[in-house]
Every structure is written in structure tokens, then in C-alpha cells.
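U., I forgot to send this yesterday:
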Amino acid sequence: MQAETGTLKGEMYMAQINVNDLTFCYEGSFDNVFENVSFVIDTDWKLGFIGRNGKGKTTFLNLLLGKYVYRGAITTNAVFDYFPYQISEEQLQLSAADFAGEIKAGCEVWRVICELEQLGEGAEILYRPFITLSPGEQTKILLAVLFSGQNDFLLIDEPTNHLDEDARECVKKYLCSKKGFILVSHDRDLLDACIDHVLVLNRRTIEVQSGNFSSWWENKKRRDQFRKAENEKHLKEIGKLKQAAAQTSQWAAQNENTKIGFDPIKEHDRCTATRAFIGAKTKKLQSRVKQMEKRLNREIEEREGLLEDIEETVDLKLVPLLHHKERIVNIREYGIQYEGAENPVFTDLTMTISRGERIALHGENGCGKSTLLKMILQKAGAADSHIPVTESGVCDIASGLTISYVSQDTSFLKGGISKFCKERNLEESLFCAILRQLDLERTQFLKNMEDYSEGQKKKVLLAASLLTPAHLYIWDEPLNYIDVFSRMQIEKLLLQYQPTMLLVEHDRRFREKIATGIIEL
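Result:
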């Protein structure tokens, strides 16, 4: 693959990362993650890394970090650093100022404070126990530590998962002001704002292109449309050539069969010398067949590879149940306070959910979105555990309500697909079919789910929910780690079947497209 070259800035030549004939396979796996891959990227770029779940984005970042043995070559003078840092249980109890130097060698606290200012945070959060900080504050500290170094090329893996919209906006503005990084993200809004190049893991190839996600996606749609048209043209030509070759071959065989034996009464003008003429005619017909076969092979070769990188998402199906009541959730002046807590999680919440509505809960981390979802599950008899809270106000749930729930937590997924289906009363063949439609490879069905990527685990929960007929679908951050193609696939599904939903989702484009109403907490 030919990629764009590096740039000169001032008098300093920006480094490049050259990947040549890279081949990598996990031990015990049947398929290569990468096979004879070659491309060049510049360390001055703001590079967005795009690809399906399980295609090898995080694997490639780990290859750059030197964590795995591979064939081929990765050559560069760049020094890499990776986000998110692994924080130990011991470090969680300390302040970030105490362990920053442990997670990033040579880290200077004053530089971290300067980066925090750009993220809209004061220095005081550096000196509070890390475990007491919100997810947004933790992410900002780790990003500040990451960017506190000089001349590092940074590998940033899903920085906005589990962050509320305010924190996402803050991270987005911060990354817009930076350069020299690879950003792995499935958030289209973040990618469009922060990157100037894309590195794309297609189905069979890898491409490097200038621009953001939307410009790449528009180019891809045009390219895919052209390739489909070319494929149709080649298929028609192949069909015509096959038909003509078969007809000509039949004529040649019939002509050849007339060389020996003839009826002297019916064919009175023929003699044995005619055999030479018939043989020459047969040879000419056979030569025409060979020419057609050559053209046929050429058409087939030209067609090969036209569709190998086209992302054809299969239309998913959903079977929502219709409840006899129009209004299935009625909440008035409702409040929740955990037992033993000084302050309530929230108070005075009023909202309703009627059939066909898709309500999105919106608010900062810790405002009680997930708690509200769990309380509704508990009242409907669909919760696994009891939440120790004191309630005020009214929270009425329609009787006989069937709920299909997607949790934001995937850590409980253990063992194989068969065990999971038995525990949930799911038809295994149908469940696997939905996973295939969500682009989970069949080879993954043989693995234990704890070995799946985070995106693949989330697809397991989504597939289980889609296979469960329900009056109400409650999804808690369903798109964390889910690739952008599957996000658009799920958008299309929900708009087509219009189930009744209550969801928490921080992907702004998804929320704006899907939700019929937004409740601020």
C-alpha cells in the first residue's frame, strides 16, 4: 500500500512509522490477525483508528508497544505511550500525584497540572484518593499524565467510554488541540472533531487516508457503490460468455460427430473427402471456445476482490411485545436515597413511558441514571439483586411487564456460548445467527466469553436482548466498545421496529437519532 509521506515542520523532520509485511497470529488461534500488512503513518498526524470489533485495533497498538512477537518489520524512531494506564488496587487508594511517576516514567507533576488546566480541572484532584474521583476526573488525570511527556507518539484506546456528555465534550476539545496520536474510538462525533487522518482495518485490507470519519465514510460509500456496479457488470459478462461458450462447444461436438458415417441417399452430395472440411470447421469452433474461456477467466480475475472490503450489514430483527396499557411507566416527584447515605441520588423526578416511546436518560456521571434503571427492573421483578434504598414519591410499573435488559457491566460473562444460552433460555442456533449478523466470527463461538474483546462481550448482551421479546427494552450504555458499523446497524433496527425503550447512551449521534424524548437528571 502506498501511504502519504511525512511532513517537515520548521527544520525538524517528523518521524514515520513504517510497517512492512506484518504478520501476527495469537498462539493457538486458527487465523492471522494481520497477514503481510504494509503501510506508513506520520507521527505528526492526529490519526483515527477505525475497524470492526475483534479486527485487531488494540492488538496493533500492543504490537507497537513491543508486547508480542510478530513476523515482518515495524520501524520507527518514535517512543510510544498507551492510554488507559493500568491502575493497581494499591494505587487506587493513593492520590495521582503519588503514583504518576510509576505509570509514566519521568512524569513531572507541574506538567500534569498544566495539562489539567487545559482539561478544565484544578490541581486539587491530583491530591485526592484516585478511587474517590468520578470516571471523568479519573480519565482527565490519566490523559494529563499521558500528554505531560514530550515527543511521545500516543496510543489512545477508547478514552470516552463510561463518560457523561460534559466529560466527553471536555476530552474532545482537549484532543482537538493535540497532535501526534492514534485514537481508537467508535464515537463518530469525537472522530470527526479530533482527527485529520484515518487508519482503517477493512475486511481484507488496510488503508490510510487523509480526512476525518465522515469524509472517509462518504468516500467509502461512493467506492462501494462503484465496486458493486462493476461487479454486476462483470457478472453479466461472465454469464453471457458462459452461455456462448457452452453453445459453441455443443456445435463443435455435433459437427465432429458428422465426420464418420453418412446416409448416401439423404446426403448424396457428400463423399469421404468431406471429412477434412468438417474437421477444419470443428477446429475453428474449438478455437473460438478457447478464446471465450480466456475472456471468461479474465473477467473472473477482474471481478475478484471487488467486494472484499464492502461492509454489508445484515438487517436485524426484533419482536417487541405490545402491552395492554398505553402508559407502562409512571413516575411522579420520585426520589431515591441509598441507605446510610447523607444525600439523595436524585429527587422530584417526573416522567412517563408510553408504548412506542424511546426515552433517553441524560446527565452527568453519578446523577442516578443506572440506579433508576435498576429500580424499574426491581419493581418489575426482573432484577437479580435488591437495591437498599429509601424512596419518595411515586414509581408505578404496569403489571405483567416483560423487560429485556442490557447492563453496562460485562465482567460476569464467563464460559461458552452454550452455557450462556442455557442459563438465559435462549435458542442457541438463533442466538449464534444474531451474533453472526453483528459480525462476530464463527471462530469466536469456540472460545470462552472471558477471552472476548469488550466490544464482542457487549454484542453478546445485545444479541440476547434482541432475541428476548419484551414490552420494554432497558439498555444501559449499550454502545460502549461497539464498532461504528454495528452502531448504524442497531440505529436502523430501532427506527424500523420502534420498540418501547428506556436507555442511557452518551453517543450523541445515536441518542439524537433514536430517542423520541430526553429526560435530564
